Amino acid sequence: MSGVMQQISIVIADDHPFYRDGLKNIISLNPSFKVVGEASDGLELVQLVKALQPDVIITDISMPNKTGIEAVKKIISLKLPTKAIALTMHSEDEIILQMLDAGAMGYLDKNTSKDELYQAIESVVIHDKVFFPEATRQHMYKLLTESSYKPYPNKNISFSEREIEIIKLICLENKSKDIAEKLEISTRTVESHRERIMERMDVRTTAGLVAYAFSHQIVSF
Hints:
The structure is a single chain. With 221 residues, this protein is of the alpha/beta class. It has a domain at 8-132: Response regulator (Rossmann fold, 3-Layer(aba) Sandwich), CATH 3.40.50. The protein is 51% helix and 12% strand. It has a five-stranded parallel β-sheet, with helices on both faces. Helix 2 (42-52) runs parallel beside helix 3 (68-77), helix 6 crosses helix 10 and helix 7 packs across helix 10. The longest helix is centred in the last third of the chain and has 15 residues, at 187-201. It starts with 7 loop residues before the first strand and ends in a 6-residue tail after the last helix.
């Protein structure tokens, strides 16, 4: 990011103060990021996001009052511009799917590297892309394809050939501009298709679109 660009505002949530302090210190090493708030539970996280409307939250899952899953679901339902990344020790497949279903656009475990954390923040905020660590990315997509737990119900939605092309390109982490160039259509047309696809899927984020596409085998490995 350019030094003249506005810093990415971040709220972090974890019920362990020691871990929260460490995460804040790591984030603060990058001049492109600014931690604007800290929450010790899910309820406090929702209240902070309402007040501060940060660019992104980085949240644990197991917290008192509201879990990270419940908090993210509430924040997304408020239609705020805030994106969400889960940073947790939980690696159970069902919990991962529930977090993505809630609207999280990234999923990292607490052994992640500093650089990977930075990549996740920039991916979801700047590029509006889902982020999974390279080491687990294939497993995440296979999980969405093969799991009996479906984040979104099958409404027997049929998509046009062009819509399926766009869905597949989104799942391959192409931005709207890239998709427009590949399909030789305007970026505005791509955005219109994206909005209609998400409305029909009844999802609110790119993560939701990707989760739906893989879980319903519109795309697969």
